[in-house]
Amino acid sequence: MAKTFMKPEALSDQHTHYCPGCTHGVIHRLIAEVIDELGIRGRSVGIAPVGCAVLAYNYFTFDFQEAAHGRAPAMATGIKRVRPDLMVFTYQGDGDLASIGMGEIVHAANRGEKFVSIFVNNAVYGMTGGQMAPTTMPGQRTTTSPFGRNVEDSGMPIKVAELLSSLQTPGYITRQTVLKPKYIVKAKKAIKKAFTYQLEGRCFSMVEVVSTCPTNWGLTPHEAIQWAEDTLLSYYELGDYKVPE
Amino acid sequence: MSKVLMKGNEAIGEAAIRAGCLNYFAYPITPQSEVAEYLAHRMPEAGGVFLQGESEVAVSYMIFGAAGCGAIVFTTSSSPGISLMSEAISYIAGAQCPAVFVNIVRGGPGLGGIQPSQADYLQATKGGGHGDYRLLVMAPASVQEAVEMVMMAFPLAEKYRNPVMILGDGLIGQMMEPVDFPENLKTEPTNKDDWASNGMDTRGANSPNIVKSLFLDNKLLNDNNMALKAKYDRMKKEEVRYDTYNLDADYEMLIVSFGTMSRVNRTAIDNLKEEGLEVAMIRPMTLFPFPEEAIRQASLKENCKAVLSIEMNMGQMVEDVERSVQGKVPVKWYGTCGGDVPTPEEIMNFIKEQK
Ligand SMILES: Cc1ncc(C[n+]2csc(CCOP(=O)(O)OP(=O)(O)O)c2C)c(N)n1
Ligand code: SF4
């Protein structure tokens, strides 16, 4: 019988450690499919963040490096500068990229480093147990904002795609999500575009993916998707924020 | 090759290129910015990579990324910058990657001052970052030696898959001296296919290499750290380097001193000899591993009444010297920690007071 659907070669045979309803796994799969389709597995190097995806390398079948918290774009810069032929991407959460690693991502984007950053925005620190992130919504309860995020002392959630697209250096900056199949199809196209730009040596790309963390949101997987669609997508608007000329 | 007159910082940059290191990432800081200024034109000319990063934090992770995918790579900085790099140095040691860090030390704590200092002795030898790791640390006493140590650092980093640090000071970086670049210290690239994330196609493999320092399983972490310990034990056996001065004499005092400070001591020792007082010196060239045995042996000499740790810091090396001397004779400290290099007269007076 002919196989019509199978696991991408770039994805390994591992049981997931991600929680039920977590979207990290979907995003992993999209990256793996794109790497297969572009035939670049043998020259890909991923950079795992510090966050729930710290063990991302367990799920892929190509080289990986593991960064310190927030430093993945600097590591990717180091690799890409000495080995421009390698296909490099960082995979980072919102605490990792938008808080402790804000400096590294802004400067990598501004230098126009020719790698891809996949930015998983789930509005919370997942791995450490649901603390407030720079992307946490106003009023959203977390373990360190037990009364809801108070924008008077924590400011408004940072819109990373908008922020990076304000840089004058050309790049590909887009916000996608994987909450439903119709979004997943688009997110994959964006990830493929980002890797293609890297293959062509064109520009830096950042694909922000609005995601879920049912565990730390205190919601069921189904409720989490509903909440993300209603609350997150109205603040974090989907679409391309910048495309290279 | 004939000698050329070069400023220490520029010679350090040139030495790296001559050693075969064509990848440099850095962030400006006095008193070592001339390395970056020199390499900003010299690296591209040599066909290498030069990048000014946005901070020492970022630079140190650029080093980690580049080293992790198999490149020969180095950076230079000075004390506050090395503090920022210390997080990455810990990760690089944990992930067992080779890399070279040059610290042209200035005064501290905090912003301290920009004058020569040896106040990062403890940071370099006992670990500025967290966790169970050590650096191989070499301390040059001249521009020529800085060149040679930089050139030796790359093969040592490769041999041990561990960061190597050159601990200079502002004087070594800023002064001009004649140097030549030894032809025999070129780094031969080693095969890193069994661990580096250099791309599976590069090494014709179908299984990934993971460069990481996380071992959630207690046993695996213990195994990794025991492997590190074995390397550090091997360094203690194979890499101890030191120099001696007037050690054949029937000396009454033994100085232990490294880097710029040791040069002043030589003058003091010569002058005291003329006055009839014999003093010897051991100059650690490697600060880790520390020449414990040489110091211990030298302290046992019949007429040796005291061992003097003379440093441009508060006495950070004293514990290592005491550990070496093992209580056989008293260990005293003399030094300055504001940026002034003690004069030969000051050293002589101190030594005479110990009689
Ligand atoms: C220097 C440092 N500070 C703090 C931590 C603790 N820490 C681990 S993961 C994490 C937050 C991760 O959250 P995020 O980036 O949003 O990723 P997620 O887990 O949600 O996928 C923190 C603070 C650390 N490992 N290192
Ligand atoms: S804690 Fe949140 S982000 Fe982490 S695996 Fe679970 S659902 Fe996903």
Your description of this structure?
The complex is a heterodimer of chains A (245) and B (355). Helices cover 37% and strands 16% of the residues of chain A. Chain A is of the alpha/beta class and 245 residues long. Chain A has one domain (24-238): Thiamin diphosphate (ThDP)-binding fold, Pyr/PP domains (Rossmann fold). In chain A, strands 2-1-3-4-6-5-7 form a seven-stranded mixed beta sheet, sandwiched between helices. The termini of chain A are far apart. Chain B has 355 residues and is an alpha/beta fold. Chain B folds into two domains: 4-199 and 224-238, Thiamin diphosphate (ThDP)-binding fold, Pyr/PP domains (Rossmann fold), CATH 3.40.50.970; 242-353, Rossmann fold (3-Layer(aba) Sandwich). Helices cover 42% and strands 21% of the residues of chain B. Chain B has helices at 8-19, 33-45, 56-68, 79-94, 121-126, 143-160, 170-174, 200-203, 218-238, 259-274, 292-299, 318-325, 344-353; strands spanning 4-7, 23-26, 49-52, 74-77, 99-107, 113-116, 136-138, 163-169, 176-179, 210-211, 242-245, 253-256, 279-284, 286-288, 306-311, 331-335. In chain B, the strands form four sheets. In chain B, strands 4, 5, 6, 7, 8 and 14 form a six-stranded mixed beta sheet that branches. In chain B, helix 1 (8-19) runs parallel beside helix 2, helix 3 (56-68) runs parallel beside helix 4 and helix 10 (259-274) packs across helix 13 (344-353). Chain A binds chain B through residues 41-45, 47-48, 54-55, 57, 60-68, 71, 74-79, 81-83, 85-86, 103-104, 107, and chain B through 23, 25, 49, 51, 53-55, 57-71, 73, 87-88, 91, 95, 197-202, 207-214. Strand 2 (63-66) of chain A pairs parallel with strand 10 (210-211) of chain B. Bound molecules: thiamine diphosphate and iron/sulfur cluster (SF4). Thiamine diphosphate is lined by residues 50-53, 69, 93-96, 120, 122, 125-128, 133, 213 of chain A.
